[in-house]
Amino acid sequence: MLSIRKIKTSSGLTAVQIIYYKNRRVVIEKHIGSGNTNQEVDSLIKKAKEWIVKNSLQDEIFPEKPIDTVSLSDLQFFGVTHTFTYQLLERVARQCGFDINRDRFLFDFAIMRLIEPTSKLRAITLLERYFNISYSKRTVYRRILQLKSRKDAIETIAVKCAKEMLQDDLALVLYDVTTLYFESFKGDELRVEGYSKDNKSQQPQIVVGLIVTCQGFPLGYEVFAGNTFEGKTMLTVLDDFTKKNAVRTPIIVADAAMLSQTNIEELEKRKLSYIVGARLGNTSSKIIEQAYNKLQDKDGKTIRIKTTTGDLIIEFSANRYRKDKHEMEKQIAKAKQLIERSQKVKHAKFIKHKNKDNQYILNETLIEKTKMLLGMKGYCTNIPKTTLSNQNIIKRYHDLWHVEQSFRMAKTDLASRPIFHHKEEAIRSHILICFMALAMGKYLESTTEFSLKRIIDAIWIVTDAKIHDTTNDRDFTVRSEISKHSLEIINKLNESLSY
Hints:
- By secondary structure, the chain is α+β, with helices and mostly antiparallel strands.
- The chain has helices spanning 38-55, 83-96, 104-115, 120-131, 137-144, 151-164, 234-245, 261-269, 285-295, 318-340, 364-373, 390-398, 401-411, 424-448, 452-460, 484-498; strands spanning 3-8, 14-22, 25-35, 75-81, 172-181, 205-212, 218-225, 251-254, 273-278, 302-307, 310-316, 351-353, 360-362, 376-381, 464-469, 474-479.
- The radius of gyration is 34 Å and the shape is elongated.
């Protein structure tokens, strides 16, 4: 019968051996090893017991309960993964309605924009490092070119999520555009130099029009050539949005750049309600004087005037007055300095030609007009006052910051620009990846009321260590402890994903 014995060696170590007795003499069946500490000796004894069970029919009459102790020398560490983060973001995507089984590739690159925005090549490395997900470079660039075909399906899912999960009836949608530049000075039909909102006028760019809910959740988008005037993008995006999603007469909120007689007429023709910012500086002096006399510098007071572009609502704000007055005085002072120094005054405000000898004087007429406009802000709408009051129109317009915030998230948190692709299919696929990431990010923020950065930081610190036990050829993982701060956010996430 086999048994285990411990015996001191000449070097002072403790040897663990498997023995049996034959003719009253000890026979060593197998020498397991020698240990210096109690922990090492216990590990050797465990190995000896496992060897006996494996190599003989002998079982212990009273087997000991397994002890989860092992010598560090018997463990191999294979690195850390972020499986927890991946699984949680996968649940978020499924909650939003995205078909992860079909769009796994799109999902993987979308979450990389949430976690660590980078190039596609770098993303391949990080997906392997963080999640043990392998993609070859050749496969990625081939599949990137095919992603743009999923645009309509992804937008449809986003609209459904807004309706069903975020309880938005889409009665009000916000529209705005931004520009995304390329790390290149060579353009083509899509990548064209134009008015840049990133101050990159020397580099080619594209124009992106985005529709979001009143809370900033993305519903649809379109990509235009970089020199497209933003006012000409709105109707294209709105037509596509309303046709695909059967949305009935939503209220469109957009900034003053979208206001033109053509756009207004087209919106009326489509029976769409609109709230658009007005450029009061282009308004007739008669209307400005009428508003000035009616408002009388009273904070919060409004006036509604019929115009060719719908009802013009003008509001006076004391805070805006102080800001506008300070800015006007600075510009007037600058104009006076330029005139005194006889400097070139190209594009300078409040200056006009006096004669053909390029002498300049202050534009007193413009100064008086600007003084009357101090503190005023205008809004154009075709919604009657019986439906929405002046204050409600203004309140709806102020929701436009949500679309601006979505653009900021896309440009900063998701690093949608600069763009390094040069093929049109790859560019459009890149924007689709950013759109899906934006939808997931805004869903996280809407349901938890935490910022995206705070959420990602909280879940990212939860890691899994991969360990191999050489004593029994077994792999296992050890998850890191979750801090109290992170647990608060994770619990909130779990609540939002449980219904």
